[in-house]
Specification:
histidine kinase, disordered C terminus, Beta-Lactamase, elongated, EC 2.7.13.3, PAS-like_dom_sf, single chain, 682 residues, transferase, alpha+beta, 22 helices
Length: 682
């Protein structure tokens, strides 16, 4: 039975560095082997000589067994077998040399006894050698194991101490052997339980604590096996132990980490849930196969797999914020179900985006979607789906959802207000152009009246003048169409309608806008030049809004240029505005360059701030609205003073420019720039 626990006491023998026992023992064994082999050879020759040439013929032959035993101590099976055969041969040779002439029955009997003794000794040595080899292998295994192996006798004195014990406990083998095991290691264990288990079953397994040489206490998983002699008496214990200290520390840290995670999970102010997507992963693999290796293609061909994969997800844990988000009575209403089942059809694109990104190996993906709550309401959420590093089968997918319903509603209202404000701005601009508009409409109407009266006079002269009447009517139609076009452009700017994205030809848009302000530039004696490449790509945007931006910049340029005086009075001929459209990578840049006084005493970026104005009667909303429109189209708007002064004026002027993304389908390729449009001058 195991020894009883002793009072904590730890002897402190002087510490010595562990010697290289293996290399030293191997060298020692090799030396001993050679010595024993030489001694065996000498002994065999002496026995042969005594047997062959002394009066003790036959009596000493049995001593060859000592030769076999001597060789068996340090040599293998083959050497033992050869030694046995050699000893038998020497015995036979000595017998023939001494009894060739006088072969008696007694001599033959002594020969037989000697040969039998040599044979039995050889066989026993071979058997013993096999057992020793097996024991040596077992001892080698004990040395190789990383676990501690300690053998102590019935009194608890250490009799064996392997390398694992040296490494874990800190004492060398020389220091540990002969020491009381439980006192040396200050073992704390259930002594009564151990004693009872060893007595009844012969072994015990459990946990205990010990103290290393450096004073650190460690936790061990230990297994004790009782050793018994032939009479069944206890002669000691073999124990193996493995260090659990680091594992326990890691387990404790993992539990603390999981506790913190759960606390954050449950206390978070936004919705979080943990899902098992294992079955969804299999559905997506099938979709990938159907798409020839392309998941999105497979889902496009079989859209039913999208909802099938979504419904295959299962919620494992969900926090209180998610319960409130989906208006559930409790977490049990959502557990083991699928949040994806509450997706609206409009959010399937977001679901495909998430599936495709995760299948491509991404560990985190964000997407915005819309859910239907359990009470039938609608919520907009931004989803962040994360695959933990150790989760390769999608069994613990973490999903976080941020409710953006209110944000989207506010953005929708802001967009509506922005649209209404832009409409008001357009109406204000049209009010400034009232005289120009009236002129643009009056000109074709006056022409219609003139041609109508002329046609009536030709009709009064008789049928032979039908050709002249037809010509007058053609002019009436042309001018009527011209008036209708002007009214249509005005109505397009004046109408209050939601934005509509179309493909826009920049050259035509610029020409149409210049036509609307033609009367203004004529009245103020300003020249307008339009420079537009013949191969400029189209852009994508709302025609009314983009034209509003261009008209606003053009009107500002007209006012800035006109404020510098009348060229007919002061002789200044540098009153012009240049509209340049050009390509910049994947963008189209439209700039309006004036020859006014430039931007003075203010940072250019400040001009686009709401309610900032340099005009006495301005509201400060025009350029702010322009910036909102351009940024909503994916572009930028800038302002800067021109480099140098306009020729003959000493005024640098300013350039306002905006960019818009080029449409995917380009009208033509190339970078050549040519001048188009006309020069409008007073």
């Amino acid at each position: 039975m195991g020894p009883s626990p002793s009072p904590p006491h730890r002897p402190a023998p002087p510490h010595r560095p562990a010697p290289h026992r293996r290399s030293r023992s191997l060298a020692t064994l090799a030396g001993h082997g050679r010595t024993q082999c030489l001694a065996a050879a000498v002994l065999a020759l002496l026995i042969f000589s005594a047997d062959a040439f002394s009066p003790l013929q036959g009596a000493v032959a049995v001593l060859h067994t000592a030769v076999v035993l001597l060789v068996a101590i340090s040599h293998g099976r083959r050497a033992v077998m050869l030694t046995g055969l050699a000893c038998a041969a020497l015995t036979g040779g000595a017998f023939l040399a001494g009894h060739m002439d006088d072969l008696s029955e007694g001599a033959a009997m002594r020969l037989a006894v000697s040969l039998t003794a040599i044979l039995i000794t050889t066989l026993l040595s071979l058997s013993n050698r096999s057992a020793r080899t097996a024991m040596a292998e077992q001892a080698r295994i004990l040395e190789l194991t990383h676990d501690t192996v300690v053998i102590h006798d019935a009194d608890g004195i250490i009799r064996y101490w392997n390398d694992g014990a040296e490494h874990l406990y800190g004492w060398t083998r020389e220091e540990a052997l002969g020491q009381p095991c439980q006192q040396l290691l200050q073992t704390a264990y259930p002594a009564d339980e151990v004693r009872q288990a060893l007595a009844q079953a012969g072994h015990w397994s459990g946990e205990l604590t010990r103290v290393r040489r450096d004073g650190r206490r460690i936790v061990l998983a230990s297994r004790w096996l009782a050793r018994f002699n032939g009479q069944g008496g206890n002669i000691g214990i073999i124990e193996t132990s493995a260090d659990l200290t680091e594992q326990r520390r890691a387990d404790a840290e993992r539990q603390r980490s999981e506790g913190r995670y759960r606390a954050i999970f449950n206390a978070a102010g936004f919705a979080i849930w943990e899902s098992d997507w294992t079955d969804a992963f299999r559905v997506l693999e099938r979709a990938r196969d159907l798409g020839g290796g392309d998941l999105k293609a497979g889902l496009a061909l079989h859209p039913d797999l999208i909802r099938q994969a979504g419904q295959a997800t299962r919620i494992r844990a969900i926090n209180a914020a998610a319960v409130r988000l989906f208006e559930a009575e409790g977490a049990e209403q959502l557990l083991a179900g699928s949040i994806v089942a509450m997706y609206t059809p409009s959010s399937e694109a977001a679901l495909v985006q998430v599936f495709a990104a995760l299948s491509a190996g991404e560990r985190m993906v964000e997407a915005e979607g819309q859910f239907r709550t359990l009470s039938g309401g609608m919520v907009d959420v931004v989803l962040r789906v994360t695959v933990p590093p150790e989760d390769e089968d999608w069994s613990r997918i973490l999903v976080m959802a941020l409710d953006v319903t209110e944000r989207n509603q506010v953005q929708a209202k802001l967009a509506q207000l922005r649209t209404e404000l832009a409409h008001v701005s357009r109406m204000s601009t049209l009010g400034q152009l009232a005289a120009s508009i009236a002129h643009e409409v009056n000109q074709p109407l006056s022409a219609i009246i003139t041609y109508g009266k002329t046609g009536r006079r030709w009709l009064a002269r008789g049928p032979e003048h039908a050709h002249e009447v037809e010509d007058c009517l053609q002019h009436v139609v042309t001018n009527g169409t011209r008036a209708a076009d002007v009214i249509a452009r005005i109505r397009a700017l004046a109408r209050k309608a939601p934005p509509k994205t179309d493909t826009l030809v920049v050259e035509a848009l610029v020409a149409e806008t210049v036509a609307l302000v033609g009367r203004e530039v004529q009245a103020k004696a300003i020249a307008v030049r339009v420079l537009c490449p013949s191969d400029l790509p189209p852009v994508r945007g709302d025609k009314v809004q983009v034209q509003q931006v261009l008209m606003n910049l053009l009107m500002n340029a007209i006012q800035a240029t006109a404020a510098q005086g009348n060229p007919l009075v002061d002789g200044d001929t540098a009153r012009d505005i240049t509209i340049l459209a050009e390509r910049a990578d994947n963008l189209v840049r439209v700039s309006v360059r004036d020859s006014g006084g430039g931007i003075q005493d203010v940072e250019p970026a400040t001009l686009f701030e709401p309610f900032f104005t340099t005009k006495a009667d301005g509201m400060g909303m025009g350029l702010s609205i322009c910036r909102s429109i351009i940024e909503a189209h994916g572009g930028q708007i800038t302002a800067a003073n021109n480099d140098g002064a306009a020729p003959g004026s000493g005024r640098p002027g300013a350039t306002f420019a905006f960019t818009l993304p080029a449409a995917p389908e380009e009208r033509a390729a190339g970078d050549g720039v040519g001048e188009s449009g006309g020069m409008h001058a007073a």
